[in-house]
Design goal:
The chain is α/β, with parallel strands linked by helices. It is built from 6 helices and 5 strands; from the N terminus they run βαβαβαβαβαα. 40% of the residues lie in helices and 17% in strands. The structure holds manganese (II) ion. Manganese (II) ion binds next to loops.
């Protein structure tokens, strides 16, 4: 198995989801940081400067959208790509995530078979294929 050195901040309040993501990524060598709400995520992101943030959009207190907006407004964290984790497949939800500053989406429940390669694409600065496949939706 290929191993990676990058740091990934996982922002997810649902324990089973978080455990699953950890179980898939940890054996690949990533350094994982965990946050369960937006405030914690913003603190960790500015202190630890992860290479990538996986952002659940449905979080307690502050939504993943708002958390992402704040990360993008702060010059300390604005360069870190944020990938939305969402069960919502509606175009409006996805548009809202893009408008908030997310680089793309990964659908939940995650497909453990393709999840690692989906993630790699964001490190290589290539947007998610889904994002490319529907460019008209992101032209606004
Ligand atoms: Mn959630």
């Amino acid at each position: 198995m290929e191993t990676h050195q990058e740091t990934i901040l996982i922002v997810e309040d649902n324990l089973p989801n978080r455990k699953l993501i950890e179980a898939v990524l940890r054996p690949r060598g990533y350094h994982l940081l965990l946050a369960t709400n937006g405030i914690e995520a913003i603190e960790m992101a500015s202190q630890e400067k992860p290479d990538l943030i996986l952002m659940d959009l449905q979080l307690p207190m502050m939504s993943g959208y708002e958390t992402t907006r704040r990360l993008k407004k702060d010059s300390n964290t604005s360069c870190i790509p944020v990938v939305a984790l969402t069960a919502h497949v509606m175009t409006e939800d996805r548009q809202q995530a893009i408008d908030s500053g997310c680089a793309g989406f990964i659908a939940k429940p995650i497909n453990t078979r393709v999840f690692p390669s989906d993630i790699r694409q964001y490190f290589q600065n290539n947007p998610h294929p889904e994002y490319i496949a529907d460019p008209g939706k992101h032209a606004l």
